[in-house]
Q: What sequence folds into this?
């Protein structure tokens, strides 16, 4: 089966898996330290036929590598979905997106997100908050200027989203959150809230369960049995479970074969409803696995 899409609330279509994130293992603290291995990997990803979905952010400091790969690629711009995020390295999203567009050498991104409702670096008074409403208005300006096709948020809880929905003239289409079988609500009620308001959830770190050391429990035996049934590996089963929960998986790999496999194999299998529900149930019974934004969200484990 070919690549699938989710339909956003505004009618636009988004490729239903982001096969290459440039954060996590590719994250850098210094933009000027060029990682040619990353550029090579993105270049190979851009050779995969059809639309490919890439994930970027200001704070990953990987625009130079992504820009170099895009420059060398012959793939038409409309076959590349670029998600980017404002992480508050620049003061506001207008400056930040102008910077990333110039580094990436493109005229627009497909989706621009507020990376989190917090400032990673504390304000002078020690707080981590900032003016979300003012910032959202700037994102809307970026849509009107044609610099991004869609806008959204990341790591937002229900209350933060409510603030945005109240004032939005252009609605958030996406909330990219940490989501895996062992963390089905990054913050209380976020899954149901997003469904109700037609905000597409994206799952970053969807494969976190595989990083657990003790894999002797029923969850792992069950996922492994499904991998055998569908002639694949546990990673693909977990990505497919995310997709069948109506959530868009955002994954990455240093191994090109895995990127290729995530892009193809996930569309060749279909879990039954019973299998999806059983993964959800066994996952919920397992201890929470949360890797990011822990100082803010560990309280919800
Ligand atoms: N908005 C936010 O705050 C955040 C966004 N993100 C975004 O999400 C992206 C993905 O996050 P990440 O946590 O890396 O995602 P995953 O949960 O998909 O983890 C990727 C890891 O899993 C391994 N892997 C990949 N495929 C398989 C497979 N089939 N079987 C077993 N292991 C596999 C890879 O290792 P190997 O290299 O050895 O294949 C890699 O180390 C980031 O790059 C970033 O773009 C991430 C964190 C926070």
A:
């Amino acid at each position: 089966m070919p690549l699938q899409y989710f339909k956003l609330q505004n009618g636009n279509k988004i490729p239903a898996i982001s096969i290459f994130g440039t954060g996590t293992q590719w994250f850098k603290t210094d933009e000027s330290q060029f990682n040619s291995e990353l550029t090579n990997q993105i270049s190979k990803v851009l050779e995969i036929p059809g639309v490919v979905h890439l994930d970027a952010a200001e704070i990953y400091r990987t625009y130079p590598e992504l820009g170099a790969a895009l420059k060398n690629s012959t793939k038409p711009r409309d076959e590349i979905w670029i998600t980017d995020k404002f992480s508050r390295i620049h003061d506001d999203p207008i400056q930040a997106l102008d910077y990333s567009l110039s580094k990436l050498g493109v005229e627009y991104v497909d989706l621009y997100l507020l990376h989190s409702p917090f400032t990673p670096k504390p304000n002078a008074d020690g707080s981590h908050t900032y003016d979300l409403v003012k910032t959202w208005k700037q994102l809307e300006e970026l849509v009107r200027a044609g610099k991004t096709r869609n806008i959204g948020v990341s790591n937002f809880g229900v209350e933060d989203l409510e603030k945005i929905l109240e004032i939005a003239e252009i609605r958030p289409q996406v909330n990219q959150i940490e989501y895996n079988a062992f963390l089905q609500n990054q913050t209380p009620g976020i899954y149901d809230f997003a469904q109700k308001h037609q905000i597409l959830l994206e799952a970053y770190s969807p494969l976190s369960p595989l990083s657990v050391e003790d894999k002797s429990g029923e969850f792992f035996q069950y996922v492994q049995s499904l991998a055998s049934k569908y002639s694949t590996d546990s990673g693909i089963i977990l990505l497919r479970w995310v997709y069948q929960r109506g959530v868009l998986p955002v994954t990455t790999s240093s191994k090109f074969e895995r990127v290729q496999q995530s892009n193809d194999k996930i569309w060749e299998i279909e879990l039954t409803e019973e299998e999806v529900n059983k993964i959800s149930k066994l996952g919920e019974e397992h201890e929470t696995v949360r890797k990011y934004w822990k100082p803010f969200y560990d309280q919800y484990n």
